Amino acid sequence: MKKLVCAGEILVEIMAERIGQSFLAPGPLVGPFPSGAPAIFIDQAARLGQPAGLIAAVGDDDFGHLNIERLRADGADISAIKVHRGAATGTAFVTYETDGSRHFVYNIKQSAAGLIEIGAEARALLAGADHFHVMGTSLFSPEVIEVARIGIETVKARGGTVSFDPNIRKEMLDLPGLRDALHFVLSKTDVFLPSGPELFILAGATDEESAVREMLDRGISAVVIKKGVQGAVHYDKTGRTASPGFVVDEIDPTGAGDCFAAAFVSFWLRGEVPEKALRIANGCGALAVTRKGPMEGIASLAAVEAFLATARTGAP
Length: 316
Ligand code: ADP
Known about the structure:
Helices cover about 35% and strands about 20% of the residues. The chain has helices at about 35-45, 60-75, 120-125, 140-155, 180-190, 195-200, 210-215, 255-270, 275-290, 300-310, and strands at about 5, 10-15, 30-35, 50-60, 80-85, 90-95, 100-105, 130-135, 160-165, 190, 220-225, 230-235, 240-245. Helix 5 (about 180-190) links the parallel strand 9 (about 160-165) and strand 10. About 50% of the residues are buried. The model has no long low-confidence stretch (mean pLDDT about 95). Adenosine-5'-diphosphate binds next to helix 8 and helix 9.
């Protein structure tokens, strides 16, 4: 089976216990939960039985070891996760507003995540990789952009493929080197997995069909647009395939897009038709939101198949 690799931040998430609770006063917290978009992606791929490894850096502390142990237990290749003495693992503290939005207090750039590099272990992992996945959240400094560039170049030189989940907001476009990095990543991307708003940040056009056409004309093979509770839409040169989302009780939306992307890419690498890859991906995305904590709802292949056997779809 094809092996996929991702590089980027590992962190823990600690959240306010109650909706509407603010960090401007002391209050009860829950966590730490293992997190970081690349870690969520790799963990979900591994739980689906896809060979998957992560290039990352953590501190030699409980938060770092919590993540490493979760990834190891779920079957991911952790050989290229470097443990740094004297650096702390990154954190994200989250509050949930009454309108459904989330508010984050991050410490990622100054954490061990900023020390990521391509050492001997990362080189060895890339030497056996068939696919490299890029997360927009992992392009936060020129050093981590360089890691992504090496990952992309190495895997492409082996005849492998690249997927890209932009995961960006408009304000991020002014980060040093990010615009050029996005241009470079898009020029190497085979599978592009934006959410609706992200597609329009990166494309010139303002309607979906034209924005997708722009991406396909750049040489991207498949554009998969994530649409939250409504599911997802897949476009390639042959046309459009829509697939509805599944009805679940949403407890915590963090990580749904990463689980969706991991499942879609895993089944795309297995040569499955878009309908099947989208259905499994929508199933993984739906299950991801049913538990508090970004990696707590990650499902095994058996669990997602059991869910899909009885799941009810919402409106496409
Ligand atoms: P992102 O997390 O990147 O913003 P989305 O919110 O679109 O992406 O979620 C990714 C996928 O997860 C969706 O395409 C869908 O399959 C699933 N999903 C997300 N939220 C829900 C929900 N409330 N109910 C069911 N499925 C969901």
